[in-house]
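=== RUN LOG ===
request id: a7f3
mode: sequence -> structure
chains: 1
length: 288
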Amino acid sequence: MNQGKPTAIDLPEWVRAEIPETVRRALQEDVGSGDITAELIPDDDHAEARVITREPMTLAGSAWVDEVFHQLGGNVSVSWQAQDGEPVAADSTLFTLSGRTRAILTGERTALNILQTLSATATSARRYADMVAGTGVTLLDTRKTLPGLRTAQKYAVTCGGCANHRIGLYDAFLLKENHIAACGSITGAVEKARALYPQRWVEVEVENFDELVEALASGCDVIMLDNFSLDDLRTAVKTVNGKTRLEASGGIDDTTLRSVAETGVDYISIGGLTKHVRAVDLSLRLID
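=== RESULT ===
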């Protein structure tokens, strides 16, 4: 059970609902028919442990860690020293554990695997968010997530100060070149989308100004400007003049992000928020 601080970032219900199954699959993958190494330890042995970070990070994933030890039993208590969304300095204690030694050691790798990945995602998001601070732009993630961790990584992005694009293929339309070609035109694709699911968000990807004009006339909710130059982004912002939202995407990195944000677009989507993360270096040690 969690005896420490609550998460600083509220867990949406659509995230919370998936945690038990995500953890169950992760434990099954690692533990399988049983942790034979843990059987070396007496069943009634109890211990305390702490988890530290070896590098600066933004924390995300505490609820998944809690669920790991909840599912393993062993009366393991988890006491958090930091909250999701909080920056943590190198060599800081993230949480301590107390309970059955076998359960602590069996859950160690699963808990740390999830926490190091989600915290890496939050740390990446925080770095990008800081780069555009003061511009008014909203940074969005994409569907370029680790299989099985879509919901978790989407949550971690919000811990780092960025926002979620569509969660999957089911909750919003994103009409790309092939969809538009198959439907005959931008106008036709938007009309079909509105007819099928009137309440769903409709976004259109465009590659030039002719497509931009047609997309604007279609009444879509967002226009994605794919690989537009900085000058073209500025022109697009003036052309649209607030009539709909604009999203910049494609080829945006550390060297161009701030300049793109300053063009006046509403959103910038960056696959690297979730795709290019490097796991945070975490360590668990038993306390003597």
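=== NOTES ===
Residues 74 and 103 are 6 Å apart (CA to CA).
The chain is about 40% helix and 20% strand.
=== END ===
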